[in-house]
Amino acid sequence: MSIDINDVVVVIKDINSEHVNKGMLGVVVFIFDKPRSAYEIEFCNEEGKTIETITLEPDEIEKVI
Predict the structure, then answer these.
(1) How far apart, in whole angstroms, are the C-alpha atoms of residue 27 and residue 24?
(2) What is the Cα gyration radius of the chain?
């Protein structure tokens, strides 16, 4: 299944970040194809404020259907 801009994804691995944990939902805001595939994901709190924007690789996220 492909992942596109504005897709909601879930983190499936623990991330070395104080704000992002396995199971968190985020939105794809940019897709990198060079030097390898990766996705810039924005994570927000309950009020809609961005708490973290990080780049994750395909094996760290899954698209939410």
Answers:
(1) 10
(2) 11
Residues 6+ apart with CB under 8 A from 58: 3, 37, 38, 39
Cα separation, 54 vs 33, in Å, equals 16
Return the bridge partners of 26, or none: 9
Q: Is the pLDDT of residue 18 over 90?
A: no
Helix, strand, coil shares of the chain as percentages rounded to 5? Answer: 5, 45, 50
What is the reported pTM?
A: 0.90
d(CA 12, CA 44): 17
